[in-house]
From TrEMBL, chain A:
Source taxonomy: Bacteria, Bacillati, Bacillota, Bacilli, Lactobacillales
Signal peptide from the UniProt entry: none
Cytoplasm in keyword set: no
Protein's name in the database: Polyamine-transporting ATPase
Recorded family membership: Belongs to the ABC transporter superfamily.
Keyword NADP: no
Automatic annotation (TrEMBL), chain B:
Name of the molecule in the record: Thiamin ABC transporter permease
Predominant subcellular localization, coarse grouping: membrane
Biological source species: Furfurilactobacillus rossiae DSM 15814
Top-level lineage group: Bacteria
Segments crossing the lipid bilayer: 6-38, 50-69, 75-96, 196-217
InterPro entries assigned to the protein according to its UniProt record, in alphabetical order: ABC/ECF_trnsptr_transmembrane (IPR003339)
């Protein structure tokens, strides 16, 4: 008998909306490493949350049954269910209830009614396995996304659940942290016979690790298990699109600068960027890369006056700390990492209307917007609540909203997160167009580098507290 | 002292002085509170705050009773003014004797308040810095979309509420997936006990207060 069984499962968020999953029958074997892939926004998260018993308890309506070890998950109390099925979420910052990793682990073990004298040993084992002992007592707010996902792994280890579900767990993570987590997950399968299902649209590094590949077909609202032939084709296709660094130009010295850093230092407790001096050119598409937690977002925060700094940081020759926020926001705008931060109203149509109302030029007309919505696969969602869009859809809408504003300089913090390759190309094309045709300056943080070099002008890299231009991307 | 016992004691004293009119009792309560705050090394600023914040109501009530009440009693004017300060310093005493986490943990274990309430409160307290930075982000993001939000703007409030609702849902999902069931039995890594001297000290304090109040009546 399989570990996890789905029996004729259908799920709707709202009875009036089309189902996300329809008449699904599926089985996952125990002690296997399973990968679930498919375009963003199809319902991979939904399927995992159903198996974890979070849906329909928190949202939506479901029919059919889902069993783990032959027990229907919906009938189990949370403490029993958590020991059977554990989940790592897409958004690392929102999966903890306590202030520090150690307290979160203690909270978890208390819920499982672990005796107090056994608790410390289990906490330390879990911290050790996930490599988070060093920051066990730091606050979550001071941890990077990669560090938070490692803590999440520690909680899963402490729960000792038989089934581990991971929902795009590496979306905000640098390659080192990703490799570490994948290695530890493999250990959990091989050594401890855990059953793992990872939802990910990025297939790199998985082929030698996984036992089965599952593919979510968004049109049919169903998942099917890929046979070995189909799996090979999928991996080969992904491999072809794999990122091979391509040469890219270095900025010439005579370019007029949009931003000038001089002895610029920024950080929270310790400096993240230390004594950096360089120019970021005007009217170009610059890509900013660097491992997770190195300070890319903090640099952006400083560029839009959300973060204090020392040294000099100038925008077109004026010190940014001395500029008036309201006026400056008309020239330099940020596309936030959390898409929801950008939304001010409720529905997709209202958001677009708001951007149209306050746009600085008339470059974006209704027909151009409609065409772009269609190319971003967002057409026909006018009345949908923005917060109910998938993470990928939120990102695409967010980028469009800020493009409509037509601000001369746009900073984008990971706009490609959670996007499938087709959507990523569309977004990059839009940005390229803004630079070439509308002479805007674009500075973009991204971890997803596939094909980005076709669109970007320069590559700025952050490592060892320093910024420098690279000749490849 | 155990936070639950201390909370009950402070509340009891607070209620009792509401029904009595002994100036000395109020003054001694203030003095004891200051001593305990000194013991806990409360920062100077907290004394200043405790003196300034009740100043307007205390002075106001002193003048209204002294000059505008039917009896115009000097004694009663002082009773009311010192009572307001006694309340404020009792609050100070409690605040500096314990922390939010300790109080909530003690309420869960000693007072058997439902764990849903306790962890809901803890979640809410952990939200405060998040909400502050979120408001900053909302205002910056609105400016970038051409809108200037003031702190009284309904849109700012709406966004803050949306963010809070979103967080509360995530928090609930996170707690559930980490094994938390509403009001189910849990174990505790740190078991909070009530030492015997807590009861003794409470009884002594209350007896002392009664004697003080009785002596004031004569």
């Amino acid at each position: 008998m399989s570990k996890i069984n789905l029996n004729d499962v259908t799920f709707h968020y709202e009875p009036t909306l089309p189902p996300v999953i329809e008449h699904q029958n599926l089985a996952f074997d125990g002690g296997t490493f399973n990968l679930l892939t498919g375009p963003s926004g199809t319902g991979k998260s939904t399927l995992l949350k159903l198996i974890a018993g979070l849906y329909p308890a928190f949202m939506g309506e479901a029919t059919g049954t889902i069993t783990v070890n032959d027990q229907p998950v919906v009938d189990l109390p949370a403490s029993k269910r958590a020991q059977l099925v554990a989940m790592m979420f897409q958004n690392p910052s929102q999966q903890f209830a306590m202030e520090t990793p150690r307290n979160e682990l203690i909270f978890t073990l208390e819920n499982l009614q672990v005796p107090a004298d056994k608790m410390d040993a289990q906490v330390n084992d879990a911290l050790d396995f996930a490599g988070v002992t060093d920051f066990a007592d730091r606050k979550f707010t001071s941890l990077s996304g990669g560090e938070q996902q490692k803590v999440s792994l520690a909680v899963i280890v402490a729960l000792n659940a038989e089934v581990i579900l991971l929902d795009e767990p590496f979306a905000n993570i640098d390659p080192d942290a990703r490799l570490f987590l994948l290695t530890q997950l493999t250990t959990l399968v091989k050594k401890y016979h855990k059953t793992i299902i990872v939802a990910d649209h990025d297939l790199s590094d998985y082929e030698p690790l996984i036992d089965q590949l599952y593919i979510f077909d968004g049109e049919r609202h169903q998942v099917h298990q890929a046979d070995s032939g189909e799996a090979q084709t999928r991996f080969a296709a992904f491999e072809q699109r794999q990122h091979q660094p391509a040469p890219i130009a270095l900025p010439a010295a005579e370019l007029s600068p949009e931003f000038t850093l001089d002895g610029f230092t920024v950080g929270h407790q310790a400096p993240l960027i230390n004594d950096a001096s360089l120019n970021i050119p005007q009217g170009k598409f610059v890509v900013l890369t660097g491992a997770n937690g190195t300070g890319k977002s903090t640099l952006f925060d400083a560029l839009v006056k959300l973060q204090t700094y020392t040294g000099s940081l100038q925008w077109q020759g004026q010190e940014i700390s001395k500029l008036r926020a309201r006026k400056y926001a008309q020239y330099v705008a940020l596309v936030f990492q959390q898409a929801a931060s950008q939304f001010l109203t409720i529905t997709v149509a209202e958001e677009i209307a708001l951007s149209l109302k306050y746009q600085q030029t008339t470059a974006w007309t209704q027909s151009r917007i409609d065409a772009t919505l269609a190319s971003l696969d967002l057409a026909g969602r006018d009345d949908q609540v923005v917060y109910s869009l998938s993470e990928g859809q939120k990102k695409k809408l967010q980028v469009l909203l800020m493009l409509i504003m037509d601000v001369p300089t746009l900073l984008l913090d990971e706009p490609l997160t959670g996007l499938d390759l087709v959507s990523a190309h569309t977004v990059l094309k839009l940005l390229r167009h803004a630079v070439l045709e509308e002479h805007h300056t674009v500075l973009m943080i991204t971890h997803q580098l596939t094909d980005v070099s076709q669109y970007a002008d320069y590559h700025l890299h952050l490592s060892h507290h320093q910024l420098s231009y690279e000749a490849s991307l | 002292m155990n936070p639950t016992i201390l909370l009950i004691l402070v509340l009891f004293v607070g209620v009792e002085i509401s029904f009595t009119s002994v100036i000395w009792a109020n003054v001694i309560i203030i003095a004891i509170s200051v001593l305990i705050m000194l013991w806990h090394r409360a920062p100077i600023l907290s004394y200043v705050r405790l003196l300034l914040v009740p100043l307007i109501p205390a002075v106001g009530i002193w003048f209204s009773i002294r000059y505008f009440s039917t009896a115009q009693s000097v004694h009663f004017a002082w009773v009311m003014a010192t009572r307001i300060y006694a309340y404020a310093f009792l609050g100070g005493l409690f605040t500096f004797s314990t922390t939010t986490e300790k109080t909530l943990a003690s309420l869960e274990q000693n007072a058997h308040i439902p764990s849903t309430f306790v962890y809901g409160m803890l979640g809410a307290f952990n939200f405060v810095p998040k909400i502050r930075s979120e408001v900053k982000i909302i205002r910056a993001s609105a400016q970038m979309r051409g809108i200037n939000l003031h702190f009284w703007s309904p849109q700012l409030l709406f966004k803050a509420i949306v963010a809070a609702l979103n967080w509360s849902e995530n928090l609930a999902e996170a707690m559930t997936s980490h094994g938390f069931t509403e009001n189910a039995p849990r174990t505790h890594r740190t078991v909070i006990r009530i030492p015997w001297w807590n009861y003794l000290l409470s009884v002594v304090s209350l007896v002392g207060l009664q004697l003080l109040l009785l002596s004031g009546l004569q």
